[in-house]
Amino acid sequence: MTMQPPKVKKLSQYLSWCLGLFFTVALLSWALRDINLIQVMKAFQNAKPTWVIIALITFLSSFSLRAKRWGTLLGAKRDPGSFEIRQTAVFMGFAGNCVLPAHGGEVLRGLVLKRFAGIPFPVAVGSIFTERLLDVVVAFILLLLSLWSISQQGVEGLENIPVGWIALPLIGLCTGFFLAAWCPHWIIKILQQMLRVLPGASWKNTLLTIVKSILEGLEALRYPRRMFIALLETFGVWGLTGITYWGLMQAFEIRQPIAGAFFVQGLVALAIALPSSPGYLGPFEAAIRFGLERYAVPPDTIIAFALLLRALMYLSLMTVALILALRLGISWRDFSPASLKSKQ
């Protein structure tokens, strides 16, 4: 019996890996179908550098704004640490997501904040969960607005989208998390009552710790002014990222309204939530192809767009993260158990 939990965990990890591999291969194969590599390279080489630079600037700026928003959320009842530390953690975390499975970069973000700002790891992770909640809400709102806009334009396959019905899950999600933020003790009591009838002990404590960390991260939702600022910052983050997509569309002479860029961005945000290999290989390309095909963009141009967007995003994140980490004096020793324990 003592060996069963590790076996179950190993089986779960194996199934997760297989599912991720399946989505990667299936979606990447779909995205790359009927592609002429010579035409892809020609389209890639013909991209206008000025628009690529504009896209790069707006993309990197969105992560600095993420660091600012993180301070807004953490500062509800504590010192959020310096902007420099938060910015370094954000860039390192998102760079880590490019190469680590299961969004492992988020753990790295929390560790950086714990090591250099002294913020407890559960608190940091809880605040990251709140960030993700805001990201989902705002990304979904922008996707709905773009869907409504392009449905009026008669874009193929998107003429009669029931935007109002699609918005209902978003309303339910927001309501649920606001109630959780305002009534955390009720959530804990209900969870404890449910866990009492289930066998085992150690996993219950782990689950309770995770839920408490998430609820503590939602604490900023109880401060209307701070929440309003964080919401505005989130719109700013996704607005800058949307301009990144639009800028690259101009670089490839894809002359569509900015609503089209927000539509593609929203599809990518949904797609990368699927299990896949590190770096979202497969879902990323498939979402871009599906979105740009609505505008009759040639497949070769779409794949060139996806390649350049991936290179712009991932290479810039890796480079800036490395520079900021060196500037802050971060080394692997900073994440050793002894080093992290000393900051508790």
From TrEMBL:
Subcellular location: Cell membrane
Membrane-spanning residues: 49-67, 133-151, 163-183, 227-248, 260-281, 301-326
Membrane-protein topology: Multi-pass membrane protein
N-terminal signal peptide: none
Origin superkingdom: Bacteria
Keywords of the record: Cell membrane, Membrane, Transmembrane, Transmembrane helix
Principal location class: membrane
NCBIfam families: flippase-like domain
Protein name: Flippase-like domain-containing protein
